[in-house]
Amino acid sequence: MWAILSGIEGNLAAYEAVLADLKRQRFPKGRLTPTSVAELYILGDIIAANPESNGVIQRLQSPKVGELKPQICQGWWEEQLLILHGLGKSGEPTALIDRYGAAMTKTLWDAIDRSHLSWLRSLDFGFFELDCLLIHGSTMGVEDELNPDTPPVEMIDRLLRMDANYLFCGRSGLAFQYEVTAGSMTSQVATLDRASQPRTATLRPRKIVGVGNVGRIPGQATYTLYEPNIGKIQFQTVRYGAARGFQS
Amino acid sequence: MKTAVISCIHANYEAFNAVLSDIDAQHADQIYCLGDLVGYGPHPNAVVEMIQALDIPTCQGCWDEDVVEGLNACECSYPSVLAEHRGKQAHEWTNQVIHPETREFLAQLPLSLRDENLCFVHGSPHNQHEYLLPEMDDFVALERVLATGADILFCGHTHVPYVRSLADGQLQIKVTLPQQGTVHQTFSAPLKRIVNAGSVGEPRHGRPNATYVIYDSESDRVTFREVEYDYQKTCAAIIEKGLPAIFAWRLAQGLEFAERAEDPSHICER
Amino acid sequence: MNTPITTSVTTSNTILKTTLKTPKKIILVAGFPGAGKTQWIQQQLTQQLTLNNLTSSTNPTNPTKSAVYLNLGQGVMPIDAIYLAAAVDNLEILTEEQLNEFLYHWQQDLGQDSGNSENSSENSLPIDSLYIELGFHIDPTSLTLPVEESLCHRVAVVSSATNPETNQLDNPENNQLNNQELWRDWADTIVPGLPISSVDYWQHSQPQIIRSILTGQVIDGASLETFWYELTHGAYGEVQRAKGIFTPVDGRVLHLDFVAGLPKDIPEKIPETITTELPLPPCTKGRPDQFSGVEIIGFNLDRAGINQTLEDSCLDDQAIAHYQAQIEEQLTQMA
Questions:
Q1: Of A67, C146, C176, C290, which is least surrounded by CB within 10 A?
Q2: C173, C36 in Cβ contact below 8 A?
């Protein structure tokens, strides 16, 4: 089973709550079972424009004994930070300014310790395991926000770019399952020298999964559990802090 | 209304002239150009001047962009070290002979053009460097057209013309949100087409003739046009002006000079 | 006196009697470029080797050379020699400079052998034949070797293309090199080679030869393909014959062999270019020591164009180091 998270956004308490929940998943009734969580993926946005993000980075870099080593890829916030420091793909932090205003550039700059830059830079852009693409936005980039309202052909395009059957993403912050159960089309190509016969193109079922968001909403973290062998997807909501109720 | 769509002239003035005569003879009402006015060929300034003189709406091609920005073409399109050498030579040569006003003109070209339900791009709606190859996945092709909101997407960049029809597109979708259950949706797409206009100046279909297309909105039909011209004149100019002499031979064979449109799954990240 | 054991070995279109303990022979092989001289020699050598292996009791871990090959006229281009040495076991390669001395000793050995034929060890593998391949630009009639005539056997390899109406070899009168009469005067044996349609070489003028040594160069594989396509389709002139040895970055040693004029519309179509990977040690670090180069024969050849393309197809030190490191990493991961 895989645990897939996104959007810790510097919220260490939320992350700790998820880890505690994962521990219960890993060792139900105190045992390691075949269906236990074996992999932990974190799809970007581990930081946000807050200094607590430094603590999250350190926590991720040093998992405790018995904890899974997380596989982390870059997200939107990480990319904005790298751009600010001249280490990104593009020159100007236009996306950051457009979304949060110019003042955010200073806030972000001040929040994250420079010593973490090389580690953040070294993070993968995404992962491809079995038939699954795990990435913050999509292969188009971290800013590509896939959500339940995204037009179907666009969803299919993102899946087909990597020929993935599953695409796990976190950009929208939402937890959702968007399944293309079937598709068909008649296509025909004519060239200078010949006209081809029409043929039918079909799609096999594929799915895009929004994995939820860990740190944005205080007191409530959402993440995803996925069993590759049977294709089962389960959304977990963990409450923590004052609102957590009876959980240990 | 007959619309002639031309692409990838690549500074081949002889070919361009012949195509303009053919467009005249075909009584087209308007012309659109999909870019790559310059690059590889021996007469970049003359081609641009003619485009300007005839006021032909043109979108910016990848070579036009490269000449403006001083970059090199998408390096992933070079199938070999040899091709890369030759492409760079062509790029440097073009860079040196381009007039400032030509460069300015190329810089202000839009990335895409629109005429009612027709959309015109160089590579793809997303990227000047992306090849829309005839063998690319049908659903990905559909996404490209739908992304423009047009019924027919005209593109170039591959230098081999084709018309691709995507009909009866149907998708079944199932969306599940936690605590909200599952919603089923059916999505249908009307007939969409991708039309590749081939290349006027650097044909890659195995013959030296220029290719372009004419779309007749009344009959809703696309016609391929293949135009013979005195390509030997272009060959002579290539050699005389100091471009790689091998381009002359490759033009006569209808082969790519350097870059090759391969790998429909490759998405250029530039 | 030893009675020679005679065996007949039938090749595709010829019969060449080979004998163990037979007096040694010098086999001179001539023919126009691309006729198939080297190919025929390879056939003979391979069959000879098989025969020797079947009947001899020589220690296989320390085999003596069983045949010798010399390409007369190769100059600085030992392409055929390298190819044969890699393709045929126990082949000794001679250079032109070594020929006279070799023949002197050879004749001496012959003298000793004929005197001691009864006592010749059955364990020794006599060097049966010296194959001398004559470059097309060497007039075979002008060649005289300092050995007895009886020791020489002259073979002419001619085109096997036949006129479909007459079923005779095509245009024997027009093509001087394929002129049966000419060869009959010189050759002891005429061997049909590849079915190249006759080309009136000599009516134009002497063909040009371009030789480019590429030893130490690492060529980009895809560029080599493009260059070879251009070369064999007329981009650099009318090429009749081209052969080369190339060393791409993956360390292989490739032998490319092109002949123009092969028939295109027959069921068993013979490819114009044959590419062979030679079983030679790969070079996985730095620049190779292995000889590489290309020889091109034809008309109106564009030497500058050829050399420019070859230059542009080769990798610089940085690229070589980069790709070799990549390959090493891939091999480590696969292991």
A1: C146
A2: no
Rounded distance between C-alpha atoms, residue B210 and residue C9, angstroms: 59
Give all strands (DSSP E) within chain C, no chain letters. Answer: 5-10, 15-20, 25-30, 67-72, 91-94, 129-134, 152-158, 189-192, 208-213, 238-246, 254-259, 273-277, 293-299
Q: Can you tell me the distance from the alpha carbon of A155 to that of A138, in angstroms, rounded to the nearest whole number?
A: 10
Checking DSSP bridges between strand C25-30 and strand C152-158, what pairing results, if any? Answer: parallel
d(CA A226, CA A39): 10
pLDDT, residue C119, reads 41
- For chain A, strand residue ranges (E) read 2-5, 39-43, 71-73, 126-129, 132-135, 166-169, 175-191, 199-203, 206-211, 220-227, 232-239
Q: Are A226 and A185 in contact (CB under 8 A)?
A: no
Whole-prediction pTM value? 0.86
Nearest beta carbon to residue A153 from set B146, B177, B198: B146
DSSP annotation of A132 reads E
CB-CB contact of B94 with B38 (8 Å): yes
Provide the CATH number for the domain around residue B247. 3.60.21.10
Distance from CA of B240 to the nearest CA of A (A): 32
Q: In A, what residues contact B, Cβ < 8 A?
A: 139-140, 148, 151-154, 156-157, 160-161, 163, 174-193, 198, 201, 203, 222, 235, 237
| B15 touches A at CB < 8 Å | no
Phi, psi (degrees; rounded to nearest 5) at A19? -60, -40
For chain C, where are the alpha helices, taking DSSP H only?
A: 37-55, 79-87, 96-115, 180-186, 201-204, 221-232, 303-313, 317-334
Min Cα separation B261/chain C (Å)? 15
How high is the pLDDT of residue C17? 35
**Interface touch B172/A188, C-beta < 8 Å:** no
Which chains does chain B touch, 3 or more C-beta pairs < 8 A? A, C
B172 phi/psi in degrees, rounded to 5: -105, 130
SS3 B97: helix
Nearest to B187 among A140, A152, A179 (CB): A152
pLDDT at A211: 97
Q: Does C105 touch chain B (CB under 8 A)?
A: no
Question: Could you tell me if B200 and B20 are in contact, meaning their C-beta atoms sit under 8 angstroms apart?
Answer: no
How do residues A148-174 score in pLDDT, each as one tens digit?
999 999 999 999 999 999 999 999 999
Q: What is the ipTM of this complex?
A: 0.92
Q: How many angstroms separate the CA atoms of A161 and A148, rounded? A: 19
Compute the Cα dihedral for A8, A12, A18, A23 and give only its sign: positive
Q: Is the CB of B172 inside 8 Å of chain A's CB atoms?
A: yes
CATH entry, A2-162+169-178+210-243, from 3.30.70.790, 1.20.1560.10, 3.60.21.10, 3.40.50.300:
3.60.21.10
For A78, half-sphere exposure in the C-beta direction (CA atoms, 13 angstrom radius) is 30
The chain B residue lying nearest A237, using CA atoms, is B178
Cα separation, B74 vs B269, in Å, equals 9
Q: Which domain holds residue B55?
A: 2-253
pLDDT in tens, C153-206: 899 888 777 655 555 555 544 444 455 566 778 888 888 888 877 555 544 567
Task: Label the pairing between strands C5-10 and A175-191.
Answer: unpaired
Sequence-separated (6 or more) residues with CB below 8 Å from residue A183? A156, A202, A203, B139, B169, B170, B171, B172
Q: Which CATH superfamily hosts domain C205-329?
A: CobW-like, C-terminal domain (3.30.1220.10)
Of B58-62, C165-169, C302-306, the one with minimum mean pLDDT is C165-169
Residues facing B193 on adjacent strands: B152, B165
- pLDDT at position A181 over 90: yes
C80-92 pLDDT, tens per residue?
999 999 998 888 8
Tell whether B134 lies on the interface with A, counting CB pairs under 8 A: yes
Return the CATH fold of C5-201: Rossmann fold (3.40.50)
